[in-house]
Amino acid sequence: MTSPAALYFHPDQIEGEGRDLVGRRSAGEGFLKAWVRHGPTGELGVLTETPTHAAALEKALSARDMPRALRSHALSSGGDLSALGTIFFPTPGYSSAPWARLRHGPASASFVGLTHTVSTRRIVESLHDLLTQPVEPWDAVICTSRAVKSVMEKHFQAEADYLRHRYGAARVPLPQLPVIPLGIHTEDFAPRPGAREEMRARHAAPDGAIVVLTMGRLSIAEKANPLPLFLALQRLAEAGHDVHLWLTGWTDREAQEALHREGAAALAPGVTTTLVDGRNPQIRRDIWAGADIFTLPADSIQETFGLVPVEAMAAGLPVVMPDWDGFRDTVVHGETGLLVATRMAPPGAGAALGRRFAEGRDQYLQHLSLVQAQVQIDVPAYAEALAALAADPALRARMGAAARAHAAANLDWRAIIPRYLALADELGDRRAAAGPQPPRPSPLEGDPFALYAGYPSTTLRPETLVTPNGTPTEAQLEEIDRLSARLLYRRQTLPPARIAALCATLSAEGPMTVEALSRACDLALRPTIAAVLQLAKADLVRLPRPPLRDAGD
């Protein structure tokens, strides 16, 4: 490395007493340890908001048995940032640093942000605001997956177009968008002797049982709607397997936990389902050893990368994940696990959702729920993938070993931090080379199905054939809305009576295209798309199985 590199630190970005356990803090904790272990040697360059935050970092490093001398600079103190070179931030934005840099020349330092979720109102607004700050081409925002890069490009393009039309801007500098995954310390997940036996005994899973593990916050809209998993596992149980599902996680909303319990009881009565508190440090360390398969039916646009399947692979578990956002970057289909096809509404179908969210008529969880209702994980494919692993211990062992090797070689911080440092060199070279009124929609009103078009395997199209798979009653559809948290968020895509009528039409007339179904029900195309995807999510209609999105897309 030839260009200096430093990190930005705020106490809230790492785990600590009294702070909720969330993905960004877990990632921040891992990154801090990785930077100290594998980053620049000598004094640790650090940028903080205030001098007290530098003192908090010194204390945190000592508490983790990683004391280091700091070369710190506080934004509140002003001054030149050039000695820090390239500064890595834990969020997409750079705080007030671009304005501080301007005082000393825009090429005096580089700033690098990092994506986590890109769907909250605060983050979306900050991304658009970023382009009105003095950001330069020698800055960057690291995208943790190709899918999230596609979202970032659309946000930046919408804002750049707005600035050109509003102000006649001839130049809108954009930061670089390199794709670098998050890392983990893979050695932290190596199974400990006796852990498998202890975990299975603690949760009453006999030797011959197939234990399927999930991990993460029990938040349906923010993380994963478990409905497809329950349906798939019930099929596995009906095929004769003794299936145990360990829903490992945590929630601060009792209603969410209740929905998981009730969903498992209603949709997977043949599966022994156990809710395990994932905040327990021993559980977080050893639960992986007791499982046979890891999966997480993630279908929320809040997800961008997903650390837990990487952790599962590091623990030697084969994984079954949706072909959704960052999972297709980390799971090698057919080698370290299996990907399951997904589908969502096409670009253009969510313009009204984007407006409602931008205007505040839908709060964040309501927005997530409305979008999630039109995202489908293919249930039959999910069941087949789980069944293939459940029936073949040798396949599980082979994929588990490949998963562990893949995580160690490509997703350990030892492999990731050098990519950060290479980026610092590249941005340093860019700095050196730089030398001394027609109406338009708000760029914040992003159609979620256009923004996140890179997430699913494919989209539902007017010509897609829809085949009935039952005739649900209005009460049954209401129950599915309840279990999917749409009633909790007070947002239903359509009244159950309208969807029940659609199902009755489809059952009477037989398979037809989405467009034909729309005409037959005297229903506009967009709500028909929403109803079909919602029904397909619950396996009440069948759609042609889409191919997995090519790894190069």
TrEMBL record:
GO molecular function: transferase activity
Keywords: Transferase
Pfam families listed in its UniProt record: Glyco_trans_1_4 (PF13692)
Organism from which the protein derives: Pseudoroseicyclus tamaricis
Residue spans crossing the bilayer: none
Protein name as catalogued: Glycosyltransferase family 4 protein
Superkingdom in the source lineage: Bacteria
